[in-house]
Design a protein that fits this description.
By secondary structure, the chain is mostly helical. The protein has eleven helices and two strands; from the N terminus they run H-H-H-H-H-H-H-H-H-H-E-E-H. Helix content is 55%, strand content 3%. The termini are far apart.
Amino acid sequence: MSESTTTSNTKFAFKQLPKFDPVHYRAWASDVRDAFAERDWNDYLQSPPSTDPESMPASTPTTELKPHITVQAKAFISQSIPYEHKYGLEDYTTAAEIFHALEQKYSLRSREDELRLKSLLLDMRKQSSDSIDQHINKFTSLMASIIAQQSTTERYDKAKRNKYFLRTLELSDIANENWIGFITYLGKGWSTLTPESLFSETRSWYESHILPFKSRDAESPDTRALTTSTKDTSSKQFTNYKKPKQDKSHQNSDNLPRDPKAWCGYHRRKGHSTEARHGILH
């Protein structure tokens, strides 16, 4: 049985490499190394020999490279790289050359991205408009991006991730959100919790110690609108109120001819007669 047939029949964990993504370069590079290692292709991924004679022996593969595996290895790594990231790689003939070129290009960029993302993390605060779940989602997304740029030896452990998360709450300074009390409640226990457990504790505190007070103090928009509408309507009623016009027949009778003995049946009093009044009006 040939070596190529044996390789094709082997059940590998990596049937193919994950798609290359510059944002997650370190994770992708780690998967590439694992995939080549399980095929016993480590020598086909070594960096090209240096032009420095003193370093050449260390970079030279320890075994003779076989042409057909060289072709397979190049195809294996090439199929994982989308076209938009293949520019400049067309002239490379081996997997090692391609891998080395991507390492030089994106390893430095990963470091720059890591520093930029760390700066965003230090400036991160919970916003008053965000629920606790929205804030947790924002934090975990940012933290995942940072960890993706970090090497294995530099990766944040759970205590450090928890510390940064609590910092986003402690410095938020939002009315009716007592996060200092939450941190005091946790004590030193936060350093031993998994991030998921800390998030769970945070949700419980938010729902029992923060949300009820925010709901009590915050007037619902519908109620506020109804109150404002009622006040405006009442104000307009009094502002726009006009005394109904009296019929001329109800005007003051002082302008009618005075006659102390005459009786007015309309006003039911003495002082003028009904006939005299109607004679003037009509």
